[in-house]
Design goal:
Layout lengths: L1 H16 L15 E8 L17 H13 L7 E4 L3 H14 L3 E3 L7 H7 L4 E6 L3 H10 L14 E8 L2 E8 L7
Helix pairs in contact: 2-3
Length: about 180
């Protein structure tokens, strides 16, 4: 009987010492995540070399549709594009598919900190140019990591994630077997 009492007291002591502690409420277990998908416009019509604002060629139209398929599983919150035919036309299939209006931006005038604040905790597509998209990525991540995209490359996708004050980036290249 004495053994059972001692055993009961020991078990009670173990039970009390193993009580569940509440997690520290000051630690955020699910930090804020903002994700940017940045692409260069699809293939432009080069029929008239002096045209500063060409539309997409046939292959470019196919690639724009391809981007919409690639981004189909992403729950985008916003789409930004420069105000040029080739970038607007690249953004259009994704815009229509997601039912999101395209917002226009001027790369030279972008306040990157305000842009990050305006899109906090969102998933955002940004469409730009061979020189503006790498620069945009570099500003988002706070380092000079990516050079301009070659003029013949239209399948580059940058993914930038901001988690709190930490930025990560990935560069992917998608081939498009779109007809010319």
């Amino acid at each position: 009987m004495k053994t059972i009492k001692i055993l009961s007291i020991c078990l009670l002591a173990i039970f009390v010492s193993c009580k569940e502690e509440k997690p520290d409420q000051t630690i955020n277990e699910n930090p804020d995540v903002t994700t940017f998908y940045l692409i260069r416009h699809a293939e432009k019509d080069r029929t008239y070399p002096d045209d500063a604002d060409p539309e997409l060629n046939q292959k470019g139209l196919g690639r724009a549709m391809h981007w919409a398929e690639i981004l189909d599983e992403v729950d985008l919150d916003a789409i930004y594009s420069t105000d040029y035919n080739r970038t607007s036309m690249t953004a259009a299939p994704t815009s229509v598919k997601k039912n999101i209006d395209v917002q226009y931006y001027e790369p030279r005038d972008i306040d990157i900190e305000q842009f990050k604040k305006d899109n906090l905790n969102k998933k955002v597509l940004v469409v730009g140019h061979s020189n503006t998209i790498p620069d945009f990525v570099n500003q988002l991540i706070g380092e000079d990591k990516y050079p301009y995209i070659d003029d013949s490359e239209n399948g580059t996708l940058f993914i930038v994630q901001l988690v709190g004050s930490t930025a990560t980036s990935t560069k992917l290249v998608f081939n498009c077997n779109c007809p010319d």
